[in-house]
Amino acid sequence: MKRMERSEFTNEQEISKTADLHMLRRMFPFIRPHARMLCAAVFLMLAATIMELAAPYVIKTAIDRYIVPVHNSTGDIKGLQAATLILLLIILINLAANFGQVMVMEYTGQKVMHGLRMKLFAHIQSLSVRFFTSQPVGRLATRVTNDITNLHELLTSVLIFVLKDFFLVSGITIVLFSINAHLALIIYLVFPLVFISAYYFAKNAR
pTM value? Predict the structure, then answer.
């Protein structure tokens, strides 16, 4: 009996060390039927990212053209009003895109997790009684409930925000180098230190 418990504990440890990318690949059959919804979420995410990049540039343009230059003509006031309206429109589009992206991803994530739960439940139902006598009930309940919830968070929150941050950083890099390449290089000198620190933190956190 002790040998059985020890082997079960070893299997549990091996499961916990499985590569994340391998686990994601195993989810592809459940994600593939909802590929259109995922594409729509990515499109909305890109739209929100573009709006977030455009807002600071509009503010920069308004300051450089209509606030810093001291002119008494009405052209500057009209230009500032136009910039304000454009900025307001950008903010509204950004809010709508973010809201749509969250709703689409939540809907898609729920559909994917529903299929995964049904598959897992059917698999558990097909197992023999001997399996249930040798496995802790809490472990099985965790697999059906908590682990599925964690996968839902991974799909709907982590992955989409990683993609959004990647595109956002890429867009900021392009804008910075287009405005002032020398200053952008100075700013990005600290990036290797940030990457190294993040790598060791993630490694020790595991």
Answer: 0.71
